[in-house]
Automatic annotation (TrEMBL):
InterPro entries documented for this protein: PglY_5th, PglY_C
Residue segments, region Disordered: 1175-1205
Domain ATPase PglY 5th: from-to ranges: 857-957
Domain of life from the UniProt record: Bacteria
A Pfam family recorded for this sequence: BREX_PglY_6th
Limits of the ATPase PglY C-terminal domain: 1001-1168
Biased composition (Gly residues): 1175-1192
Protein name as annotated: Phage resistance protein
């Protein structure tokens, strides 16, 4: 491919029309048939058209065989050749030899040879302008019959009552002689067709008043009284039409559609035809012109179905109707009809659909037709040139995708056929043509575009979609429906009165100059893109125009948008679209890099709303708007109280920093005194100036103020942000946005839009809201340029008053702020603060990621791992990934040990701050003590957060074995955030090694302390803490055990040197000694306590004291004391005393006591048995009686004082068989006590079993 080929004039490659007339590329069906030769010469037969012609002829053949009427819609898009198709079909049926010889139709003609031999009366109808369907059909029939059969009386297709009434009037007025002479002046053709079948030969009427076979008064009167359709009435009507009332043929009232169709086909049969074929063109367009007349629509649509389904049965001849249709009638309604009306019309059309076949002229054939009719290369060189142009575009895949977007799913081959148009343009053109009168066909519009570009189009020029706006919207032709006419008018008004003037002003050209600009001039390109957007508004839903992104908008006008970097054309389109949206609220642009661009035209004059709030545009409101925009961009928090500063939160090297941001005019000492330039509270301050000032003031005035303050000695942690000034155009935008933001406030729009009609208020509000958003977005971009974040553009900012390296000025000596490389203002300020804080705290650890804050929870977790490492001799191994990552993020940069993958090491050599803290101890001169404040002073230059300082102080204290003390109290493992400046870190007193070793061993043996690796304050604290806690838990048990043993030592046979008693006393003394206060005293006491070399018995006594005490509490001591004298009792007590003598470790006491209690109870019960003296239902015994056993008799206690026995009490004890051991013990003890309290008396016991 060479450049020369692409720059070749297109007229040298294609045969471009010089001009396009009103009739070009628009075929009227009737004229197409009348001028058969050019019609057939221009016709392009594709495979799809041949198939459709087959379907049409098959439909005719089927109707002929069945001798019934049928019909079909010839469906196709505007410009698809429906009229041309029907004209060729007409010529085929009419026997035109040239039609039957058409290339591409030979197989079709051969397959239907027999059918085409029939005689068809083909009638063409152009319905536009007709008053009714029957008027069109019947008048057309009469016209054809008059032309082809002038000597035949026409059929009666109008109502004859008025005709006959007028005849009576004329007869009375002129008399019979004159009337009948005129009536008989033309012979009637009784031998020809009359419109009625089966009349026979009534004879030829000859002139003469009432004579012979002519019309006489008697015959006239007989005809008048015949019913409608009577033979004589019909002959009279025909004769009147031929002689006295010839105007009734084309005027008057037509008969109803069913009657007329029957009459018409009967007449045609009399003429010798085999069938009648109707071709109805523009039927839907004709109906669409009457959409406002619902009665007309419903009446006429109901007639269409009668073309195939009459109320009078089968017609005399088959009648086949072909109806051209491109859209459903309801599609023309738009917003002009309510839902119910749309449904009703849709149902009427569905009535047709159910009765008509459908012959579709496929859209896929359109490229071939266009190519054949319009775009045939002149020669092979021309074909190669077109192929080269298409190949160039084919390599741009993104553009190619957009250019192939259409309803027909076009291919690259289709693109080659329609070049220099694109399938997308053809798709849009068809959609626009469908909205217009039939004269604006797709082919005609394409021809006009080619004629217009004849002198300037080159082979490499693709005609853009935007070119359709002038060809369609600005053309004299108007849309079909009122709704679309309004839509076109709104689009034309917006372009002519707002968009076009804006572009002319922007490029500083006049209309005359604009017309002379070359095709690719920026003005022409932007104008073309804007027109494309308007086309998408006019034809919404069109496949090629939906989802109109910047890239797609550029592609649809391929080759006209230029970019320094290939492939970046969408950026230029986006910039222009955002400028439109900024200027007009009707344009809507998305926020993406490749945004969707839309148009929401309302036609409402919303500028009148703006005019009502002009007073709101003041310098103070402009400054307030800039503050709000900047605060939002910077992500500032709200001001606190009455302070003018607003907080900016920034995470620097993992630590959160608060920065005070103040908006002010730096040069004004009154509004910005020197004190407000000074940072305070340890926070940095940023003073942000405005990108404008009062007339006569410039950024140089702000620099002069800063130099003046420096000369006065001002040194502070403050950065001053001095922006470029906005251009006059952007300041106009600021003023406009002030007004729009005011209207955006609650109830402000309603208060200022009351003059608009209610239906206009919402569109106006939406348009203003769209403009507010677009202006806000545009102004934010301009502010980024003004404040040095984005590259400045001359249309937005004035860069002549301040250099780029002067935008940031630091009042801290030695600090020079570099211009940040950021995309947002927040990021830019963050980078400035990185520089400022880095200059202030160069030694601050760098935590990664730097922008993520090291939170307290993370610091606490690190401290836990530090303590674990120190407890493990300074090394933690086998760390999981989470802990290892945490140590690498926090402990590593902080210098607290060395984390490596899954191992963490911590020692004095791994602790970065060990030397600094050790020097702090030496510098204090307080005998080795150092305060938290002393250590924080050493860390202050790093700028670390307090939590990180706490971690370092606590870790160093643990590493160097120091206690943290507050008011004399040692803090055991203080948490992050708990340290106070006055707290002291001191070396704790520790026991000597021998004491520690002994105490540590006894703590593990007696109190379960964990083993410690080495002596340290922390280890001392842990061991002492465990011992103290456990000893306190055991103390009450030890004391109670000793007391219980002493209480029952007689029964148990214990003495002072019994092993159990000795151990109990030691245990009580030990836990008592361990109640001392500090850790050192406790471990000393533990070492000095009377503990045997093998303390296991002592430990067992301490740990089981509670269980033993509870066991002693269950023993019936009186029973044990009483049972010793009874048989077997001594043996029981001997076993008890033998066990009690020994340590619990060697002889558990509680099981032996429980067994002794059970045996004592059995002995006691056995001892109470006596020989029974009588029968009974129970059993009983007597205490003190001799003998055991019994026969089941019950001895009743005496009820009187006989025998010297006095019954003072009868105890009834009820025993539960389940778990009764405790009750038995209790009863036995009560019985023993009763016997003891009544010496010498006999006690009787009674029991029974249930």
């Amino acid at each position: 491919m060479t450049t020369d080929i692409l720059t070749t004039p297109l007229r040298d490659v294609l045969d471009l029309p010089e001009r396009v007339t009103a009739s070009d590329y628009v075929l009227n069906l009737q004229s197409g048939v009348a001028h058969a030769e050019p019609t057939l010469h221009q016709y392009v037969v594709t495979d799809g058209i041949a198939g459709a012609m087959d379907e049409a002829l098959d439909l005719v053949a089927t109707a002929m065989r069945a001798q019934r009427s049928s019909g079909a819609f010839v469906h196709g898009l505007f410009g698809s050749g429906k009229s041309h198709f029907m004209a060729v079909l007409h010529l085929l049926l009419a026997g035109n030899p040239h039609a039957r010889a058409l290339g591409g139709l030979q197989r079709t003609v051969a397959d239907h040879e027999e059918l085409l031999g029939k005689s068809f009366l083909a009638l063409d109808y152009h319905l536009l302008g007709k008053e009714s369907l029957e008027a069109a059909i019947f008048e057309g029939y009469l016209t054809v019959v008059r032309e082809r059969h002038p000597d035949v009386a026409p059929p009666l297709l109008h109502r004859s009552e008025d005709l006959l009434a007028d005849a009576r009037t004329q007869r009375a007025q002129y008399g019979d002689d004159a009337f009948f002479a005129a009536l008989n002046s033309v012979g009637s053709d009784d031998d020809g067709p009359t419109g009625l079948a089966g009349l026979g030969d009534l004879g030829r009427l000859t002139p003469g008043a009432g004579g012979g076979s002519g019309w006489t008064a008697d015959r006239f009167e007989r005809a008048l009284v015949e019913p409608v359709g009577g033979p004589e009435r019909t002959r009279l009507s025909q004769q009147l039409i031929r002689t006295l009332f010839t105007g009734y043929v084309s005027t008057g009232t037509w008969v109803d559609i069913s009657t007329g169709l029957r009459t018409m086909t009967e007449h045609a049969r009399g003429l010798g035809y085999d069938a009648v074929v109707l071709f109805l063109d523009e039927l839907v367009l004709w109906l669409a012109q009457h959409l406002s007349d619902t009665t007309f629509i419903q009446r006429e649509t109901s007639k269409v179905a009668k073309l195939v389904e009459t109320e009078m049965g089968t017609l005399p001849l088959p009648m086949i109707s072909f109806v051209a249709r491109q859209r459903d009638l309801k599609d023309f309604l738009g917003n002009t009809a309510d839902g119910a009306e749309q449904v009703a019309i849709g149902q009427s059309f569905q009535w047709w659909e159910d009765r008509f076949d459908r012959i579709e002229l496929k859209a896929a054939d359109l490229p071939k037709i266009v190519h054949q009719r319009l775009l045939q290369p002149r020669d092979d060189d021309g074909a190669r040139a077109i192929a080269a142009a298409v190949d160039r575009i084919r390599h741009d895949r993104q553009a190619m995708t957009h250019l192939l977007t259409d309803e027909a799913a076009s291919t690259e081959a289709d693109f080659a056929l329609v070049y220099p148009f694109s399938p997308a343009l053809v798709d849009a053109m068809i959609a626009l043509s469908a909205l217009m009168q039939r004269e604006r066909t797709a082919l005609k519009i394409m021809g006009e575009l080619l004629a217009e570009g004849r002198d300037h189009l080159r082979v490499g020029d693709l005609i853009g979609v935007g070119e359709l706006f002038d060809a369609v919207v600005l053309s004299p032709a108007k849309p079909l429906t009122p709704d679309m006419r309004r839509r076109f008018a709104v689009a034309e008004h917006f372009y002519a009165n707002r968009l076009r003037p804006y572009l002319l002003e922007k490029y500083d050209v006049t209309e005359t100059e604009a017309a002379a600009l070359p095709r690719n001039a920026p003005f022409r390109t932007e104008d073309r893109l804007a027109k494309t957007l308007l086309v998408s508004y006019i034809a919404p839903g069109t496949a090629s125009l939906t989802n109109l992104t910047a890239a797609k908008l550029a592609a649809l006008n391929y080759g006209t948008v230029t970019s320094l970097i290939p492939g970046r054309e969408a950026s230029q389109v986006t910039q222009w679209a955002r400028e439109w949206a900024q200027k007009f609220g009707d344009v809507v642009v998305g926020t993406e890099a490749n945004p969707v661009i839309g148009l929401q035209l309302s036609g409402v004059d919303y500028e009148t709303v703006i005019e009502r709030v002009q007073a709101e545009d003041s310098p103070s409101n402009r400054r307030q708007l800039i503050r709000e925009l900047l605060a939002e961009e910077l992500g500032l928090g709200p001001a606190e109280g009455f302070r003018p500063e607003r907080p900016f939160t920034h995470v620097w090297r993992g630590s959160r920093r608060e920065v005070d941001v103040l908006f002010a005019n730096v040069r004004e000492t009154k509004s910005l005194p020197a004190d407000q330039l000074r940072a305070e509270g340890g926070r940095w301050r940023v003073v942000v100036d405005y990108p404008f000032d009062e007339p006569g003031h410039f950024p140089s005035d702000d620099f002069a103020r800063l130099n003046q303050e420096r000369d006065a000695g001002l040194e502070t942690n403050t950065v001053v942000w001095l922006p470029h000034f906005l251009t006059a155009a952007r300041m106009q935008d600021v003023g406009r946005l002030v007004l729009l933001e005011h209207l955006h406030k609650p109830r402000m729009f309603e208060a200022n839009a009351s003059h608009l009609a209610p239906a206009e208020q919402e569109p106006a509000r939406l348009a203003l809201e769209n403009q507010r958003k677009a202006l806000r977005e545009q102004l934010v971009r301009a502010l980024r340029e003004a404040y040095g974040i984005a590259a400045p553009r001359p249309e937005d900012v004035d860069t002549g008053s301040i250099a780029a390296n002067e935008i940031f000025t630091a009042l801290r000596p030695g600090l020079t702020v570099r211009t940040p490389a950021a995309t947002t203002m927040r990021d830019g300020l963050a980078q400035v603060m990185d520089q400022a804080l880095g200059d202030q705290f160069p030694d601050h650890p760098r935590f990664e990621p730097e922008g993520e804050e090291v939170r307290r929870a993370e610091v606490r977790n690190v401290l836990t791992l530090v303590r674990q490492a120190l407890a493990e001799r300074g090394r933690l191994a086998g760390l999981d990934r989470t802990k290892a990552r945490l140590l690498q993020r926090v402990a590593g940069p902080l210098g607290v040990g060395t984390p490596r993958e899954n191992v963490y090491a911590l020692s004095a050599t791994d602790f970065r701050w060990h030397g600094e803290f050790t020097r702090a101890v030496a510098d204090t001169g307080r005998d080795g003590d150092v305060t938290v404040s002393d250590l924080r002073d050493r860390l202050a230059p790093t700028g670390m957060a307090t939590d990180l300082q706490d971690l370092l102080v606590i870790a160093w204290a643990a590493l160097t074995d120091r206690e943290i003390v507050q008011y004399g109290t040692v803090l055991r493992e203080p948490a992050i955030g708990e340290l106070k400046p006055h707290m002291a870190l001191r070396q704790p007193p520790l026991p000597d090694a021998a004491v520690w070793e002994a105490a540590h061993r006894r703590a593990q043996q007696l109190f379960g302390a964990q083993p410690e690796a080495h002596l340290s304050a922390a280890a001392l604290h842990r061991v002492a803490g465990t011992v103290r806690t456990r000893a306190e838990q055991l103390r009450a048990g030890a004391e109670q055990l000793e007391r219980a043993l002493r209480e029952h030592q007689g029964v148990l046979g214990l003495s002072g040197d019994s092993a159990r008693m000795v151990t109990a006393v030691r245990a009580r003394e030990l836990v008592t000694a361990l109640r001392r206060g500090d850790d050192l005293a406790l471990v000393t006491a533990l070492t000095e306590a009377d503990v045997p070399e093998e303390p296991q018995a002592l430990g067992k006594s301490l740990s089981t004291a509670g269980d033993v005490i509870r066991g002693l509490g269950r023993v019936p001591w009186d029973v044990l004391r009483s049972v010793e004298a009874l048989p077997g009792g001594a043996e029981v007590m001997a076993a008890v005393r033998a066990t009690a003598e020994r340590d619990e470790l060697h002889a558990p006491l509680v099981p032996v006591l429980d067994e002794a209690t059970a045996r004592a109870n059995r002995i006691l019960i056995e001892a109470t048995r006596v020989t029974p003296t009588g029968g009974g239902a129970g059993g009983g015994g007597a205490v003190g009686g001799g003998g055991a056993g019994g026969s089941g008799e019950t001895i009743e206690p005496p009820t009187s004082g006989g025998g010297g026995v006095t019954v003072t009490e009868v105890d009834k004890v009820y025993l539960d068989a389940d778990g009764a051991e405790a009750s038995v013990n209790d009863t036995a003890e009560r019985l023993a006590r009763f016997v003891r309290d009544n010496p010498g008396r006999r006690v009787h016991v009674k029991w029974w079993v249930e």
